[in-house]
Amino acid sequence: MTRRSAHADGGVALDDARERLWSAVHGGDEHGAVAVVLDAARSSADLEAVLLDLIAPVQAKVGVEWAANRLTVAQEHTATAIHERVIAALAHHPDHRTRVPAGPRVTVACVDGEWHALPARLLSEVLRLRGWNVDFLGAHVPTPHLIAHLHRTGPQAVALSSSIPTHLPTAHSAITACQATGVPVIAGGAAFGPDGRYARALGADAWAPHAREAATLLERGLSRRDPLAAHQAVDDLPHLADQEYTMVVRTTHQLVKGTLTELEDRFAPMRGYTERQRRHTAEDIAHIVEYLATALYVADDELFARFILWTADILTARRVPARSLDPALDLLAAQLKDFPRACHALAHAREALRSRTPAQKIPGPGKPA
Amino acid sequence: MDTSQQPPASPRSVGLGATWGSAPYPVVVADPSGGVVELNAAAAALFPGAVTGSWLTDVTPAWIADAHARVRTRPEGGEFRWPAHGAVGDRTFEAHPTCADDGDVMWWLVDDTDRRLAEDALKNERERTAFLAGASSALLSSLNVERCMEVTARLAAEHLADAAVIVAPPRGKNVPLTYCGPDGAVTHRTVQENIDLLPGLGDALRGFPPVPSRWIDPATVPAWAVPDGFAQPVGSAVVTPLPGHGVPAGALVLLRACDRAAFSEGEEIFARLFASRAGAAMSAARMYAEQAAITTTLMRELLPPQLHSVHGVEFAGKYRPSGQADRVGGDFYDVHPGADADQESLVVLGDVCGKGLEAAVLTGKIRNTVQALLPLADDHQRLLGLLNGALMNSHHARFATLALASVVRRGGNVRLRVTSAGHPAPLIVRADGQVEQAPTRGTLVGAFWDISSTTAHLELAPGETCLFFTDGITEARGGPLGDELFGAERLEAALTQCAGMPAEAVVEHVQMLAAQWVGRGGHDDMATVAVTAPHHAHLSAVNGHTRGRYTA
Question: A241-354: CATH homologous superfamily?
Answer without folding.
Answer: Phycocyanins (1.10.490.20)
